[in-house]
Amino acid sequence: MAAFRRLIPSRFRVFPWTCTSSFILEGIGGSLRHFSDQKVLRIEDEVIEDEVEKIRREFGAAKESFFRIPHALKSMPKMNPEGIYVNKNLRLDNVQVYGFDYDYTLAHYSADVQALIYDLAKEHLVNELRYPESCLKFKYDHSFPIRGLYYDKLKGCLLKLDFFGSIEPDGCYFGRRKLRREEIIEIYGTRHIGRHQAQGLVSLMDFFCFSEACLIADIVQHFVDEKLEFDASYVYHDVNHAIQHVHRSGVAHKSIISDPQRYLVKNDSLGFGDSWRELFDVVIAKANKPDFYTSERPFRCYDINQDTLAFSKVDAFLPNKIYYHGCLKSFLEITKWHGPEVIYFGDHLFSDLRGPSKAGWRTAAIIYELENEIRIQNEDTYRFEQAKFHIIQELLGRLHATVVESQKSEAYKSLMEELNEERQTARCTMKNMFSKAFGATFLTDTGQESSFAYHIHQYADVYTSKPENFMFYPPEAWLHVPFDVKIMPHHVKVSSSLFKT
C-alpha cells in the first residue's frame, strides 16, 4: 500500500515577525482573522525581500572570500597519485598468493594502442560486416571517451551516469553531438535511469572501452549525417563484435609485437632470471574471462617446443609451464588456494574482478587514469573551483527555499541568474580539467562520485593506478579504510566552511 499527497505552495507562510495585530491560525492552511489579506501579503513580501537581500549580501561576502581560498588550500592534504586506496580493510600479511590479469594490468600500453584497436575494428566493420567504406576515414579522438560510460542500445545515446544512476546533464551524447538537458528529458522523461531503462544499457568499463565508445559514437554520427536508417542495437553488437575480434584473434597483439617501442611502456627490470615465466608459479593463457569463472572447461598444458597443446590431464601446475583455457572450479581444486589468502589484480571490474570477488578472493582494481585524476584534484586550481561551487550551491539552496513560484521578484530573479552563472562557470571549469566531453572518470561535473566509482566501490577491495605501487608498501602492511569515511577514499572534498569568517 502506498499513499501520496501533492504539496501545493501555500499562499501564506508564517515568519518570525512581531505584529501588534492579533490573528488566529486554525489547522493546516487555517483561516486568518482580524486583518486583511493585503496587509499579510505586504508584510510577507517585505520579509522575503529582506531574505533575498541577505543572501545577496552573503553572495558578495562569498566573492570576497574567494580571494582567501588559495591561502586556505595550503593547509589541505594532497593525495598520493601512486597510493593504494581502500574500500575494504586488507592485511597484506594474510595474503599468500598474488594473481594478475595481463593486458592493461601487468602489461603497460601507450595511448597509441587505443588508436590501433579503433583502426583495426573499423577495418573489420568495413571489410567483414560491409559497413560503408566512408567509415575508413574515421580517426580515433583521444579527447572524447573516458572509461565507465554506458551505451543505450535502444536509443543510441552514450551516457555518463552518477553514483546513483542519474544521467550527467552535460554527459549525454547522440553520436558526437552533446544533447541539451531538454533533449535528455524528452528522450528519457527524467535524468534518473530506472531499472526498466537500465536493461537497455551496456557498460564500457575496461581499456578497450575507449576505442569502442569512440567508434560507436562516430558510426552513429555518420549514419545521422548521411541520413541512413539504423538500429542502435545493431551498431553496438557490430562494434562490440569487431572489438572482440581484434582482441581474441590476436591481430592487435601481432601489431604490438611488430612495434613494441611504439605500443608498450617498458617496466623496470626486477632482476629475476632470464625468463618472465620465472616470476610466476602458474601462467594461464586464453582463459577467456569472464567465462573462466563460470565454465567447467579443463586445463591444457602448452608444449612450447611443439607449439601444440598436450593431451595429458592437468592435475598439477608445474613451474615454468604455460597452461591454456581451464576454469576457476578446476583451478581451486588443483591449487587449494581459497578465500582471503589470494588477491587478484585486474583492470576490468566485471570480467576480471566480479568472479574472484564472488569466489571469496580479495580484489585489486588497476585503473591507470587514477594517477592523472588525483594529480588534477591535488591542484589548487581545481580545489579553488570546487570550493566556489560548494559555496554557491549552498546559497542557491537557501534561495530556492525562500521563495515560492508566485513570489519571484525581479531581485530574486536577478540574484538567481547571477548564482547560476557563477555555479555553471565553476562546474564547467572543473569538468574541462579532465575531459571536455565527459569530465573525470571517478567524478561527476559537480565533484561527486560517478557510476564508475560505484562499481569500483562494489567489486574492488583496493584500487590503485598500477601493480608496482604495492612495492612502496611493506609486505606486512595493514591497508585500512580512512577513518573519515567517504565514498571513494582518494577523494578530498573542499568544504565551504573553510572560507567563512
Textual characterization of the structure:
38% of the residues lie in helices and 12% in strands. It is built from 15 helices and 16 strands. It is globular and about 90 Å long. The protein starts with 36 loop residues before the first helix and ends in a 22-residue tail after the last strand.
Write the layout of secondary structure elements.
Layout: H1 37-65, H2 69-73, E1 85-86, E2 90-91, E3 97-100, H3 112-127, E4 149-152, E5 157-161, E6 167-174, E7 177-178, H4 181-188, H5 195-198, E8 201-204, H6 209-225, H7 232-248, H8 251-258, H9 260-263, E9 284-285, E10 299-303, E11 308-309, E12 322-325, H10 328-335, E13 342-346, H11 349-358, E14 362-366, H12 369-378, H13 380-402, H14 410-432, H15 451-459, E15 462-464, E16 478-479
Parallel strand pairs: 3-13, 9-12, 13-14, 14-15
Antiparallel strand pairs: 1-15, 2-16, 4-5, 4-8, 5-6, 6-7, 10-11, 10-12
